[in-house]
């Protein structure tokens, strides 16, 4: 019995020692380090396959080479698919309508599709996920950016790309004319008027003039005058504050804009600014490269950036999430899907994608010198200041976004054409209210 007992004890001790050695060498089950730093001991998602769909967007290009590291850490395989914006929306809508379990994770435009996707039950609310890991530090995200991805108080996605409306201007022209950078809308109008010289092909101002595209840019004029598109499910584009904002935008385009401005969306507007024919331009900060790239712009070294000018309510530019990451509510791999989203939006990975020029939503990354290397030095303080507040939407927050933008945009176009702006706003308000009421039945 003694010999038998000794053999049993020897085997048991050997097993304990072996287990200890394995644990010490990384054999114990551990979660992968947040953000991709350090080596996970085990691969908790070994054998899992995750389908990720992105837009053909610089963020997608920036995240792609980082994915193998994530796969190595977790043991899961990520299948990546990319589509142009309109194709992406169409593909997602078709797949979700059929109840497809893929893609597991996808890029989406919260203010364009977020409400539709949420109301149809296509996105998995992430509220319960963001608080599971303290190291994730969800409070680090800009509040306005999070507001863009929130529908009916539910978190429908995590911000990956943010945008703020800013003012672009010609530093050389302002300096020559002795004009200070406008801090108010009144100062902007005065400066635009002074620099407007159409006889010499120099126009004071340009921005989006097409009916639907202009809505996102006129939004900052609205907010800064104390107005909004709607409040508590009531359309409000006919208020005195709204009329003043629409009137200012329409006047700038009509009286001081270049020929054909009503046919311009952002590519055409920033294009003519880059040709050196416009003094002031307002649009999203994310498209700055079109004005500062020497291969695209003849005034690349003369472009200045400023916080959006203030109105009666102060400076209130939109500060939004233009692209987010969301989880398919029908995904069969929700834990794995969240692991990817958590990794892709961690401080460490946001730092890496932001260094490629993708403006993220984590405030701590913007506070790091290495987090701003992907942007012009003069633009960084403007982005940081604009990110502190602002408004979390740049269009009416409805399901039928396209219809709503057409209704609101008509106010500006009618004003430019010389029609009565008050009558145009009253008509648009009725149409927007009808859209709001219709959406309630969806």
- Number of individual domains: 2
* Uncertain stretches of 5 or more adjacent residues: 1-40
Shape: globular
CATH architecture label name of the largest domain: 3-Layer(aba) Sandwich
- If you consult CATH, what is the topology of the largest domain? D-Maltodextrin-Binding Protein, domain 2
- The pLDDT mean sits at 91
Structural classification: alpha/beta
Count of individual beta strands: 12
Number of helices: 19
Work out the radius of gyration. Answer: 26 Å
Instruction: Classify the beta-strand content into a percent band.
Output: 5-15%
Keywords: Signal
InterPro entries: Bact_solute-bd_prot1, SBP
Pfam families: SBP_bac_1
Signal peptide: 1-23
Q: How would you characterize this protein structure?
A:
There is one protein chain. This protein is of the alpha/beta class and 442 residues long. It has 2 domains: 36-162 and 320-387, Periplasmic binding protein-like II (D-Maltodextrin-Binding Protein, domain 2), CATH 3.40.190; 164-319 and 395-439, Periplasmic binding protein-like II (D-Maltodextrin-Binding Protein, domain 2, 3-Layer(aba) Sandwich), CATH 3.40.190.10. Helices cover 44% and strands 14% of the residues. It contains 19 helices and 12 strands. It has helices at residues 2-24, 58-63, 67-74, 85-97, 110-119, 127-130, 143-148, 171-177, 185-195, 214-224, 240-256, 266-274, 289-292, 334-344, 347-354, 363-366, 380-387, 401-416, 421-439; strands at residues 49-55, 77-83, 105-108, 150-151, 154-155, 158-170, 203-206, 230-231, 234-235, 278-284, 303-307, 319-327. Strands 1, 2, 3, 6, 7, 10, 11 and 12 form an 8-stranded mixed beta sheet that branches. Strand 4 and strand 5 (154-155) form a beta hairpin. Helix 10 (214-224) crosses helix 11 (240-256), helix 11 packs across helix 18 and helix 18 runs antiparallel to helix 19 (421-439). The longest helix has 23 residues, at 2-24. The chain is globular. Mean pLDDT is 91; it is low at 1-40.
């Amino acid at each position: 019995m003694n010999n038998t007992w000794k053999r049993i004890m020897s085997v048991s001790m050997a097993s304990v020692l072996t287990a200890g050695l394995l644990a010490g060498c990384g054999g114990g089950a551990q979660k992968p380090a947040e953000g991709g730093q350090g080596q996970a001991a085990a691969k908790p998602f070994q054998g899992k396959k995750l389908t990720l769909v992105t837009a053909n967007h610089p963020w997608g290009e920036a995240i792609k080479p980082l994915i193998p590291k994530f796969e190595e850490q977790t043991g899961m395989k990520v299948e990546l698919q990319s589509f142009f914006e309109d194709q992406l929306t169409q593909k997602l809508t078709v797949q979700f309508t059929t109840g497809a379990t893929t893609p597991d994770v996808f890029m989406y435009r919260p203010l364009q599709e977020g409400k539709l996707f949420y109301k149809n039950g296509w996105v998995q609310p992430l509220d319960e996920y963001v608080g599971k890991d303290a190291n994730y530090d969800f409070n680090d995200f800009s509040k306005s950016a999070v507001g863009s991805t929130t529908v009916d108080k539910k978190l429908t996605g995590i911000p990956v790309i943010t945008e703020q409306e800013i003012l672009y201007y010609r530093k050389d022209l302002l300096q020559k004319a002795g004009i200070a950078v406008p801090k108010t809308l009144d100062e902007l109008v005065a400066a635009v008027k002074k620099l407007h010289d159409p006889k010499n092909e120099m126009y004071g101002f340009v921005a989006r003039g097409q009916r639907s595209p202009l809505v996102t840019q006129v939004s900052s004029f609205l907010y800064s005058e104390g107005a909004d598109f709607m409040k508590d499910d009531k359309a409000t584009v006919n208020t005195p504050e709204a009329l003043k904002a629409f009137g200012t935008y329409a006047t700038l385009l009509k009286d001081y804009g270049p020929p054909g401005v009503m046919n311009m969306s952002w590519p055409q507007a920033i294009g003519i600014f880059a040709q050196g024919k416009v003094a002031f331009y307002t649009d999203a900060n994310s498209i700055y490269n079109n004005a500062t790239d020497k291969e695209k712009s003849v005034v690349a070294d003369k472009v200045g950036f400023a916080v959006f000018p203030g109105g009666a309510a102060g400076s209130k530019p939109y500060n939004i999430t233009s692209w987010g990451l969301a989880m398919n509510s029908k995904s069969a791999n929700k834990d794995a899907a969240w692991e990817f989203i958590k990794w892709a939006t961690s401080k460490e990975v946001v730092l890496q994608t932001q260094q490629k020029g993708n403006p993220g939503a984590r405030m701590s990354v913007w506070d790091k010198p290495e987090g701003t290397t992907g942007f012009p030095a003069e633009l960084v303080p403007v982005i940081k200041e604009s990110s502190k507040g602002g408004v979390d939407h740049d269009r009416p927050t409805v399901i039928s976004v396209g219809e709503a933008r057409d209704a609101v945009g008509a106010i500006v176009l009618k004003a430019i054409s010389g029609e009565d702006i008050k009558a145009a706003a009253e008509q648009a308000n009725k149409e927007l209210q009808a859209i709001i009421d219709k959406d309630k039945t969806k």
